[in-house]
Amino acid sequence: MLANHYEQMLQGKSVIRELSEFATARGKEIGYENVFDYSLGNPSVPVPEAVTETMIKLLREEEPVALHGYSPSLGIPEVRRKVAASLEKRFGVPYAEEDIFMTSGAAGAIAHALRAVTEPGDEVLTFAPCFSEYFPYVNGTGARLRVVPANTETFQINFAAFEEMLSEKTAAVLINTPNNPSGIVYSTPTIQRLAEMLRKKSGEYGHTIYLISDEPYREIVFAGTDSPFVSEFYENTLMCYSFSKSLSFPGERIGYVAVNPACQDAAKIVQMCGQISRETGHNCPASLIQLAVAEHLELTSDLSVYETNKNILYRELTSLGFSCVEPGGTFYIFPKAPLEDAVEFCARGRKYDLILVPGDGFGCPGHFRMAYCIDTEKVERSLTALRRFVKEEGYFA
Q1: Residue 165 shares a structural domain with residue 255
Q2: Which of 178, 197, 202, 345 would be 339's cystine partner, CB 3.0–4.6 Å?
Q3: Cβ atoms 269, 259 nearer than 8 A
Q4: Which of 221, 246, 211, 220 is nearest to 83 (CA)?
């Protein structure tokens, strides 16, 4: 007999992946250069040459059996030490090796963090708009994800709704800043207020409410944007990081959990993550990739193209009449659709070879996401299709 839970999940496949597959198929018909595919958040700039050279050097110079052997269950100690030292240097939080757990990207980090601080039946709160995959991440642990409605004026946290939804069942709060899909960065006042509320409610309920901070876009922040380091403001923070975006490295699946050393039961959490790995079959990311990123923790790809693309699209969208909160980072923009039904709006866009993602799956119906991690030349060419779409469909007339 097949597992009913996963069989049922087949009915709810990722809309983003399905749109990406549609774009690929359409590209075979008309040339992919003529499909304006804003569906998938796949970095469009190359990995830094220095990272490639480091991997080549490791392969050439290290003893093969040692290089390709299993790493310890918590990650390679030298790598964990370097990650901790880099974080302390950059952000002033005194991490040590024992606070770092190496993972297969941010998804692996979140999976471990959630299991470490929740029990079946607990609730995890997150804020709309949110990454659609949070639902299987959380619900697969036996906990329940609840989404706080969005403040669509700013996409900062809707604190009134958040306070109403907090309860004794709340074990953790999951945030994503810089945010997918809105591109918004939670400001210092937002994070300070969130931390104050979590401390207050933890005291009222008699148990710690942990903050799980999902930060794969931490390095993609645009000029003039206030971008606080979340763990600096709330001691009970488990920070989940990935090198997928900073180093344009998504296929290598490398990231980590960093447990604030001031966190309740900090000494146990990373050790528990090792046991979670046993249960889930995680068994550590590749040793070669751990060693390679450890040499380039403060290096990034050339991320400037994303701000260039954002500026082009934001100017065009707002000039056409779209209502849109300007992104402060990432490579996403999240305008309000001119139709109440954003699914229908995005479906109509396909007639113009514009591949747009409706906001329904992000907990924010009536909006749509554009992932502008594509060549700037293609962004510029897409404007003609966007103008034609708006004109021929009669939007903003």
Answers
A1: yes
A2: 345
A3: yes
A4: 246
d(CA 278, CA 280): 6
Segments in 219-303 forming alpha helices (H): 266-280, 287-294
Strands 210-214 and 237-242: parallel
Residues 337, 306 within the same domain: yes
For tokens 């590749």, name the residue: 286
Domain count, the chain: 2
Query: Tokens 């220095």 sit at which residue?
Result: 50
Beta pairing partners, 214:
176, 240
The tokens describing 220, both together, are 């993609």
* Separation between Cα atoms, residue 35 and residue 26, nearest integer Å: 7
Confidence class of residue 135 from pLDDT cuts 50, 70 and 90? very high
Domain CATH code at residue 380:
3.90.1150.10
8 A C-beta contact, residue 121 and residue 223: no
Residue 186 belongs to domain with CATH number: 3.40.640.10
- Beta bridge partner(s), residue 175: 213
Does this model's pTM top 0.90? My answer is yes
Average pLDDT, integer, range 69-95: 97
Domain residue limits at 343: 4-47+302-393
